[in-house]
């Protein structure tokens, strides 16, 4: 069961990378990111997306506290 969870997390991470890598300089809403990763509409906005983005930043950013590749734009 543990390996299944690890596989699922890795698959989601790869989907996240694909979303942002295939559309550089594009702004995505939380709902759009959720839909790309989970392949379904999100019933309500939750903090899961923030956690996914935080983990992705840890993987690709030199300094996740001052991101260069993935920025959060509030109010868009």
Description:
With 76 residues, this protein is mainly α. It has one domain (2-60). The chain contains 3 helices and no strands. It has helices at residues 2-22, 30-38, 48-60. The longest helix has 21 residues, at 2-22. It is globular. The N and C termini lie far apart (39 Å). The mean pLDDT is 79.
Features:
76 residues; 0% strand; single chain; 3 helices
The radius of gyration is 13 Å
Question: H/E element string?
Answer: HHH
Number of helices: 3
Tally of structural domains? 1
Main sheet specs: none
Overall mean confidence score, pLDDT: 79
Principal-axes shape call? globular
Give the distance, in angstroms, between the N- and C-terminal Cα atoms: 39 Å
Secondary-structure-derived class: mainly alpha
Which percent bin holds the helix content? 55-70%
Give the beta-strand count. 0
Low confidence ranges: none
> Could you tell me the strand content as a percent range?
under 5%
